[in-house]
């Protein structure tokens, strides 16, 4: 399981891999967190339960990431981790773990406007791992 930042033309992207769809969704969120701020400086003080929906698995993943960006921006929160309760092709239920943003403690690394559907495809390889690449508009 994991993620890595990938170069794209004008945006930023991550490549994600995991043994299950639940872990793929979680790793995608962790990758997003790492683009926004230094997660090692975030403490788990608050939990935020949420669910996102989409027309298919890829759209559900992108909508979840966009909901996380929305919650980060509007609730002024930073997240250290995510717990995925359930994933179906049309819905994901999850809990975000983190705390309120504190400018004296948390350094914002960059601004992400949105996760995009650009070339997204979730696939399962011969090695049994689920993979996808996600491009973010910055």
Automatic annotation (TrEMBL):
<comment type="similarity">
    <text>Belongs to the archease family.</text>
</comment>
<dbReference type="InterPro" id="IPR002804">
    <property type="entry name" value="Archease"/>
</dbReference>
<keyword id="KW-0479">Metal-binding</keyword>
<dbReference type="Pfam" id="PF01951">
    <property type="entry name" value="Archease"/>
</dbReference>
<dbReference type="GO" id="GO:0046872">
    <property type="term" value="F:metal ion binding"/>
</dbReference>
<dbReference type="GO" id="GO:0008033">
    <property type="term" value="P:tRNA processing"/>
</dbReference>
<feature type="domain" description="Archease">
    <location>
        <begin position="3"/>
        <end position="138"/>
    </location>
</feature>
<dbReference type="InterPro" id="IPR036820">
    <property type="entry name" value="Archease_dom_sf"/>
</dbReference>
<keyword id="KW-0106">Calcium</keyword>
<dbReference type="InterPro" id="IPR023572">
    <property type="entry name" value="Archease_dom"/>
</dbReference>
<protein>
    <recommendedName>
        <fullName>Archease domain-containing protein</fullName>
    </recommendedName>
</protein>
<keyword id="KW-0819">tRNA processing</keyword>
């Amino acid at each position: 399981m994991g993620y890595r930042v990938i170069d794209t033309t004008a945006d930023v992207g991550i490549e994600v891999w995991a043994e299950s769809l639940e872990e793929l969704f979680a790793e995608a969120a962790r990758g997003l967190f790492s683009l926004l701020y230094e997660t090692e400086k975030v403490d788990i003080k608050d939990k935020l339960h949420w669910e996102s929906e989409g027309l298919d698995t890829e759209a559900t993943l992108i909508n979840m990431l966009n909901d996380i960006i929305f919650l980060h921006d509007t609730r002024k929160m930073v997240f250290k981790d995510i717990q995925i309760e359930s994933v179906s092709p049309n819905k994901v239920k999850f809990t975000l773990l983190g705390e309120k943003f504190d400018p004296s403690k948390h350094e914002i690394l960059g601004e992400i406007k949105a996760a995009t559907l650009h070339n997204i495809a979730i696939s399962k390889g011969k090695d049994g791992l689920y993979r996808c690449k996600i491009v973010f508009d910055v």
